[in-house]
Design goal:
The chain is mostly helical. The protein has helices at about 5-25, 30-35, 40-55, 70-80, 85-120, 125-130, 140-150, 155-185, 210-240, 250-270, 275-295, 305-330, 335-350, 355-370, 370-400; strands at about 1-5, 60. It is found in: Cell membrane.
């Protein structure tokens, strides 16, 4: 029996799975410990169920995920609108160093993924899907770029990316604590600050959400989406004059960069126009539905044969990040307690996501003492700025090997 779901019923299923995942995460200490996103839980449960039903010949689901692109565009536009140049200035020199280190990590993650793809005799873009796309990019990056890579004819790229992102998310939660404990014990580091909450929030002094400011944020997001779609088309046409087929610039990438431009122009006109509480709310909902819709349509049977190469690539990624954090990042950040805590955050979002980074740092500071610098820099880079530097690296890699 085949169950065909149209656009509306597919959206309903995605939101239902999002809510189911939220309920399960709230009740599971293990899922909370590793910061597993709620839509990932709900979406994967349905994907497993659909795979079992298909394998037994009972039911085959046909889903209409055409709305997925809309939610993806919305999410990346909200990321861009959060990237204020004023935040970079606020973080100072250490923020720039940390940001550059994230860019270097993205390059090396792609180098590792592509290099090991030749070792296992698989397509380089499959290896890249276990690189910066799913490590620094997390489930959002794996879903977005996986769709792009599959459109280039690389089957199962999306599923590989999601699987790698899940492994990376768990690994990021596991290695952060031991990594920092090693640095603290070896260098006898101690916090010099008074206990206080330093977690950065862009919404700290904003007014409450209202119809007026919410509508304005929706307008800025849609303007970014429209401008990004146009930018992607124009960029591909212009570059086609210099090379065959041109350089592919996905519309969600364009949306994010246009959003960055809009944010910083608007800030110069009036610093109170952008309302980050509304932006964050819209982005979180869009990301949740986007991920839920993407994961529930995964064809798990397509990645079974690539399980071993995928695990090996992710393992190498974890080893490289740990060594880089200990011997390079810790030193260039100052070789002090703040640098050690930032290494915990680096492990979290370098392999998983910003919530992972914050969970790692919370565990460290709860035991060893607070770090104002880490709580300022890591969320700004992990939540807003990291995509700005990693996207060009990923897009360039896709165009080189496509």
């Amino acid at each position: 029996m085949t169950i065909e779901m149209n656009q509306v019923t597919t959206l309903f299923l995605a939101m239902a799975l999002f809510l189911l995942g939220t309920a399960l995460v709230n009740k599971s200490k293990i899922l909370q410990k590793f910061c597993i996103p709620a839509p990932v839980v709900g979406g994967l449960l349905f994907a497993i169920l659909a795979t079992v039903l298909k394998a037994t010949g009972l039911v085959n689901f046909t889903l209409d995920t055409s709305l997925q692109n809309l939610f993806m565009l919305t999410f990346f536009a909200t990321v861009g609108l959060g990237a204020s140049f004023a935040l970079i200035k606020l973080g100072g020199k250490l923020l720039i160093i940390y940001w550059v280190a994230c860019g270097f990590l993205a390059i090396m993650q792609n180098v590792i993924g592509v290099s090991m793809s030749y070792l296992f005799d698989i397509h380089p873009l499959i290896g890249m899907m276990a690189g910066a796309v799913s490590m620094e990019g997390g489930h959002g990056g794996a879903t977005a770029y996986g769709t792009t890579v599959e459109a280039l004819g690389i089957d199962s790229a999306f599923s590989i990316g999601i699987a790698a992102a899940t492994f990376g998310l768990v690994a990021g939660g596991l290695v952060g604590g031991p990594l920092v404990k090693y640095l603290i014990n070896k260098h006898d580091l101690k916090s010099t600050e008074v206990e206080e909450s330093y977690e950065y929030t862009a919404e700290a002094h904003e007014p409450a959400i209202s119809v007026d400011n919410f509508t304005m944020q929706a307008f800025l997001i849609v303007a970014s989406m429209a401008g990004g779609s146009l930018l992607g088309d124009v960029f591909t046409k212009v570059t086609s004059n210099f090379m065959e087929n041109g350089i592919v610039l996905p519309n969600y990438v364009g949306a994010m960069f246009v959003a960055v431009i809009i944010r910083n122009i608007v800030d110069r006109i009036n610093g109170n126009i952008v309302h980050m509480r509304s932006i964050t709310l819209i982005g979180d909902v869009a990301l949740g539905i986007f991920l839920s819709m993407a994961l529930m349509s995964i064809k798990l049977w397509e990645v079974a044969g690539l399980a071993l190469p995928l695990l090996v690539i992710v393992f190498v990624q974890v080893v490289f990040l740990v060594l880089f954090a200990i011997f390079v990042l810790f030193r260039i950040l100052g070789k002090n307690y703040d640098a050690a805590v930032m290494c915990a955050g680096f492990a979290g979002h370098g392999l998983g996501a910003t919530p992972n980074a914050m969970a790692n740092m919370a565990a460290v500071t709860a035991r060893y003492g607070p770090s104002r610098t880490a709580y300022l820099i890591v969320p700004i880079v992990g939540a807003f700025l990291i995509d700005v530097v990693s996207m060009p690296i990923i897009i360039t890699t896709i165009n080189i090997f496509s």
